[in-house]
Model the fold of this input.
Amino acid sequence: METATAALKTKTMYQQMDDIFDSIIWGDLARTYFEKSASWFYNKMKGIDGNGKPTQFSYEERIQLKGALCDLADRIRRAADTIET
Done:
């Protein structure tokens, strides 16, 4: 388990979100949930800031991102539930 945790810490958030990356408008998520620009968010996702220096989400920002994705998932589920079959 410790090895898996260490491997996750070395991956960028972009790599961790690979499965859903193309399905979300991340710039909208950045503005809605972080009140930040799309470029700020993409830099954090890729792990390199605008000056080419390493960057990452802080602990608080990771919690905020997790909450944003959970909220978005809940909103999608509610929308899906309104579809009559």
